[in-house]
Amino acid sequence: MSTHPIISLRDIRFQYNGVGKPVLNRLSLDIPAGSVTAILGPNGSGKTTLLLIMLGMLTPQEGDVHFEGKPSSGFSRSALSRLIGLVPQGERIAFNFSVFEYVMMGRAPHLGTLSTPTSGDEHVVETSLKQAGLMRLRDRSINALSSGERQLVTIARSLAQQPQALLLDEPTTHLDLHNRSKVLDLLRVLNQNGTTLVVTTHDPNAAVSLANYIIMLREGRLVAAGNARDVLTAENLTKTYALPIQMTHVDGRPVILPPG
Amino acid sequence: MRLDCSFHAGRQYDAEVEYGSITTMSDTMSRSFSTRKLALFGLLALLLLGISLFIGRYPEPFLMPPRLLREDLLAQRLVLYLRAPRLIVAFLMGMALSSAGFVMQMIFRNPLVSPGFLGVSQGAAFGAALSILLIGGSPLLVQGMAGAFAFGGMLLSFLLARNIRFGGWHLRLVLAGIAISALFSSGVGVLKYLADPLRELPDIVFWMLGGLYAITWDEVIVVSPIVLVGLGVMLAMRWRLNILTLNDESAYSLGAAPGRERAIILLAAVAATAAAIAVSGLVSWVGLIVPHIARRLFGADSQYSLPASMIFGGMFTVICDNIARTLLAGEIPLGIITSLLGAIAFALIFASHHAAGKST
To answer: Which residues of chain B make contact with A52, given a CB cutoff of 8 A?
Structure first.
C-alpha cells in the first residue's frame, strides 16, 4: 500500500469562476488510504465544493492537489476515475435506464471511450448488485425506485467502478431510518474491503458511527480536523454550526444533541 | 473556435423534462437478445432496400416485375441511375436524421429535441431560398448553399450560447438554437415576400417541403462521406453516450470529459444532418419520432437503441419515399409523407394502452 495519503490538499483557495468570496480558503488536509473521513458543516460551508476538488473536477485558484503523492495533472481522465469515484447527491436521470444498465455505467473507467461492455463487465455488475442486495431490482427502471433504493443503486454503480477512494455527497440525507442503516452497513463493508471513504453529511450521528476521521468546516475554513475521538467535541460542533450543541454517550457511543 | 460544452462549476439549470412514460424493456431481454434483434432488423432493412428497387411507376404503378431488368434497357437504366442512388440517399438521410435526433435528445435530456433545432434546419432553408432568389436554382448551388447555411446556423447557435450569461450549457444552447432558428426563419419569410410568386416562390416552398426527386449518383458521392463519418462517430460512441446523459459530476467521476465528448458527438450529428438536409430539403418528424420508437423497442441503453434508431430511420424514410414517388403520377413532397406517417405513428405509440407502461 502506498505510504502517501490517497488525497492531499495544500493551502487550497477556491472561488467559483475565479471571482467573489472564496468558497474555500487556505485549506489543507490529508485523506489517509483506508480511512473513513466525514466532512461536517452547515449548508453553504463548502462541503460539496471540497468534494468536487477532491474529485479533480474543480481546480483551485491557489494551492496543490495531490493524489497518491502525485500532482493531479499527472493523471489521465480514466486513470483518475479508477482511483476516485463519486456518489453524487440526488442525481436526476432523464432516461429510464434499468438498474442493471445504470450500474453498468460504473464500468466506464475500465472501458475505452469507443468500447462497449464485455461479459467480464456484466459479471462485475452482477456481483455489485448482489453485494448491495439489489438483484431483485435488476431489471426495474431506475426512475421507478424509492429514494432509498436509488441511493443503494448509485452506491452499487460505485462498487462496479471499483475505485480506491469513494467520495459520497450526503449519502444518508432524505433516507428513512431503515434505508439509512442499510446504506451505512454497505459503506462499512466497502471500507472493510479496502476502499477509502470520504462522506459529507448533515447528520453528525451518521458521521460518528462511520468515520474515524472528522473534518469540520465553517464558511470555507477548517474548524477542526483529526481523529474522530479527539475532534468530535461539543465545543467544536458548537463552533461549526454556531449553535449550542450537547453530546452524550449511549452504550459507549457518542450521540449529538442539537438544541430544541 | 473552441466548442466547449461543459457546465460552469456547480449546479445546472437545464430544461428538465422527465421521461416518465417510457418503460425499461430490459426485463424481457438480455444483451445478446438485443444484438440478435438488431441483426434481424438490419436484414429487414436490406430486404426493404432490395424490394424498393422494384417499386415505382414504371412500367406501371407499384411493382415492376424483376424479369424486366434482363429484358428492358429503360428499366435497367431507371433502376441503376435513378432508383438506386435515390434509395441510398433516402436510407442514409433517414439514418442521419434519426441518429442525430437520438443523440441530441439524450445529450440535451429532452425528448422534444429534433436534429435541426440548433439553427440547422432554418439555416439550410435560408441558404436554399437565398440561392433560388439571388444566385439561381440549379440543384448543386441550392444544395451547397443549404449545407453551408446549415453549418452557419449551428456555429451561430454555439457562438450565441457561449455568450449567454446565465444557466447551464443545456439551457443556453437550447435558447440559442431557438433564437437563431427564429432569425433564419424570419429571413426565409423576407425572401419569400421578395420572391417572384410565379417562378421563385414555388421553388422555395417545394424545397422546404423536402424531396429526393433530384438525386443522382453525384449527390450520393457528395453526401455519403460526410454522413458516413458522422454516423461512424455516433456509432463508435454508442455506449459512451449513456454516460454523457448523466450530471457533469457523475460523467466526470466515471472518467469522461463531458464537455469535450458531448461537443464531438453533437458535431458529428449536426454534420450528418446538414449534409442530408442539403440534398433533401426539410424532411421533418423522422428525427423526432424514430428515436422514441427505437427506445421503446430496445430500452434506454444507447448501445442498442442508437443503432436501432439508425436502422428504423433508414427504413422509415425509404418507405415514405416509396410512397412519395409511387402513389400519385406527380411526386408528393417527402416531408408531407414523413410528417403524416410520423404523426400517426406518434399517436399510435404514445396513446396506446401499453404506453401507460410498467415503469411504476
So the answer is: 9, 249
